[in-house]
Amino acid sequence: MRVVVQRVRGASVRVDGGAIARIDGGLLAYVGISSEDGAEDIDYIASKVTGLRVFEDDEGRMNRSVLDVGGAVLLISQFTLYGDTRKGRRPSYNQAAAPHEAEQMYEELAQRISKLGTPVQTGKFQAKMLVSSENDGPVTILIDSKKEF
User: Fold this and answer.
1) CATH assignment, 2-144
2) How does strand 2-15 pair with strand 26-32?
3) Which residues are identified as catalytic?
């Protein structure tokens, strides 16, 4: 499982012209799910996202988590995080999980983050989404449950 996490002052997602989710501050997390992912990957990512210390403390150091600052997570599914561009110019998505498996794991991840104490908003799985955000910092972190980077 791969996640691109951005510290944001606000983020929202629209589908078919209507807003479906919005957070005022916290983390925007794009998640890609591979065909090899399981429950341990969900737990790892949920723990990392909620515990990631990317918010500033009183001394200006990134020492606080989204839990510490009372922020929220906007979770967006993005199978393109498993796009392999090593051959040719068109990405291959062979590593990405099948949609029915990915959707179940995506929902489980959202539930797990919520159970860890962080409010979660989500995009719409397999929909064409328009995601807007105000990246704060900017701070962008890559997380991979298989620790490939």
Assistant:
1) 3.50.80.10
2) antiparallel
3) 78-80
